[in-house]
């Protein structure tokens, strides 16, 4: 199946929103941490609501008018968007969201999206917070030059993420969502959330 990487447009907005609402494109559940689909939905909401579509529309309009400050690309398979990678340029470049539906994985599409993103970002320092227990994502970012720092954050006080900068990125000030807790991981006490990893 042929896949095309494309910039977003207002005419494809609903397809973009539909991609990020599909299983395999969201925060991954973790029963040990008490993170299930219901908790994730309560925290993130749904991008296919009127509010979610309005948020995407606003971001896409900004990306169209400020391509040097905002990056967004999607992977199209026929009429469906099966992957998205977006980012912002501030003092450092932040990467996210990045989604790739399960059916589209394993075809180098994530790597192609990342190559376009890295070309846009040039040599700017960047960082990404990655789900701590998503080893596939961590290995993917490591292959593209991101490194684990040992810093972690509990998003909304529960969801464990680890910081992965690429290039010389200064230590971030806590500027994330309310309810986040940032700490340095203690390898003797399990992960960011205190859950022992086996």
Automatic annotation (TrEMBL):
Region Disordered: start-end pairs: 166-198
InterPro entries to which the protein is assigned, alphabetical: Acyl_CoA_acyltransferase, GNAT_dom
Coiled coil location: none
Residues in N-acetyltransferase domain copies: 25-169
One Pfam family, short name: Acetyltransf_1
Name of the featured protein: GNAT family N-acetyltransferase
């Amino acid at each position: 199946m042929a896949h095309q990487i494309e910039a977003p447009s207002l005419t494809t907005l609903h397809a973009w929103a539909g991609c990020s609402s599909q299983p395999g494109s969201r925060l991954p559940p973790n029963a040990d941490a008490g993170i299930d689909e219901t908790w994730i939905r309560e925290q993130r909401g749904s991008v296919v609501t009127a509010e979610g579509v309005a948020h995407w529309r606003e971001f896409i309009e900004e990306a169209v008018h400020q391509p040097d400050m905002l990056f967004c690309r999607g992977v199209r398979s026929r009429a469906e968007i099966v992957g998205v990678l977006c980012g912002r340029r501030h003092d450092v470049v932040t990467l996210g969201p990045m989604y790739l539906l399960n059916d589209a994985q394993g075809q180098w599409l994530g790597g192609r999206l990342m190559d376009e993103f890295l070309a846009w970002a040039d040599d700017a320092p960047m960082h990404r917070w990655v789900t701590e227990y998503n080893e596939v994502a961590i290995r993917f970012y490591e292959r593209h030059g991101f490194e684990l720092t040992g810093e972690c954050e509990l998003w909304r006080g529960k969801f464990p993420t680890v910081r992965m900068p690429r290039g010389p990125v200064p230590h971030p000030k806590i500027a994330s969502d309310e309810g986040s807790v940032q700490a340095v991981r203690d390898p003797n006490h399990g992960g960011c959330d205190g859950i022992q990893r086996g």
